Amino acid sequence: MAEDLNSHPFKKGAEVEVSSNDNGFRGAWYSGTVIKSKYSNNNHSILVEYKTLMADESGTKPLRETLDVVQLRPLPPREKRDRNFKFSEEVDAYYNDGWWEGVITAVLPGNRYSVFFRATREQLEFSRSELRLHREWVDGKWVPPLEEQEPEVSFSIDLKICNMDRFKKGALVEVSSDEDGFQGAWFAATVIEQVSSGNFLIEYKSIRNDEDTEFLTEVVDSNHIRPHPGQEAVDHFRVLEEVDALYNDGWWVGVISKVVGKQKYEVYFRGTNEEMVFKQSDLRRHKEWICGKWVSSNLVGIFKK
Fold first, then answer.
1. What is the DSSP code string of 12-80?
2. Do 135 and 73 contact (CB within 8 A), yes or no?
């Protein structure tokens, strides 16, 4: 039986977190309260009142918005005690009134951590109290679930070292762009040569130059290049699972919002607030390349073991 969003209701008064569609805010979650819910076959709209975002400059009137259900999730569980975070661990950092998804790039003295944010390519420092373990809301469960964590030995590392000198001539890679309208997408390319420490000349596999005479070449730094993830066999995708969708020659991060037919899925893109239908062959599980290894943000396999 196909899954749909009616299996994930948020009733009036429920405490929730809301993802933002505004440019520059992808990956952030804000706390709020459900004021009104409306569910029908083609409508899953929910009126939410934010707890930290205000509608007026004086800061006295909380902002209210009507949102699609795929932009909501329950409040994530908090750890039962203070935990020590590890290098390369995915976390949420509290910043500018919201929780932003990032990755630990250095463990510092005094229970402080350096966190890298992929969406903005920024690296900031936070105290332990300003961090929480990053979790995904998958099929009505938090992944990973709440559990006690043993302290780990800490060490620090510069993020740029992770990819530096890793990509050899002829290597098949994927490249990201910071240009408006292309943020969050990855495009297949081949490494032509390493031009300097941490910088590579690449040739795109599907993007051509302005004259349309040959494939575009470009110099990219180590923060914008990763190995090609290859093809992974997937039986099916689940509602609210994070995926990459092949569109306009690139792979774009989205969320499965509905199973619409045999091996067909509706995908919601937070960055543009759009929904599109894709064949299963044009989708892949979303993963991040973190210092020499692929890390799945969905971790769905936990429930299959």
1. TT-EEEEE--STT-TTEEEEEEEEEE---SS--EEEEEEEEEESSTTS-SEEEEEEEGGGEEEPPPPPS
2. no
Task: Tell me how far apart the alpha carbons of residues 155 and 159 are, in angstroms, rounded to a whole number.
Answer: 13
140: CB partners within 8 A, 6+ apart: 7, 8
Torsion of CA 65, 67, 71, 77, to 10 degrees: 60
Q: Are 118 and 172 in contact (CB under 8 A)?
A: no
Query: For residue 172, which of 121, 231, 118, 116 has the smallest C-alpha distance?
Result: 231
Classify 161 as helix, strand or coil: helix
| Model pLDDT for residues 32-41, shown as the tens digit of each residue | 999 987 765 5
Pairwise CA distance, residues 289 & 225, whole Å? 9
DSSP string, 162-182: HHTT---TT-EEEEE--STTT
The gap between the terminal CA atoms of the chain, to the nearest Å, is 23
Mean pLDDT confidence for 166-190: 85
Per-residue buried b or exposed e for 22-38, using 16+ beta carbons within 10 Å of the residue's own CB? eeebbbbbbbbbbeebe
Total residue length of the chain: 305
Give pLDDT tens digits for 195-205: 887 789 999 99
CA contacts within 13 A on the Cβ side of 152: 14
Handedness of CA 28, 30, 298, 68 (dihedral sign): negative
Of the candidates 74, 91, 296, 119, the one whose C-alpha atom is nearest the C-alpha of residue 224 is 119
Residue 301 main-chain phi, psi, to 5 deg = -60, -20
Please, where are the H alpha helices in the chain?
159-163
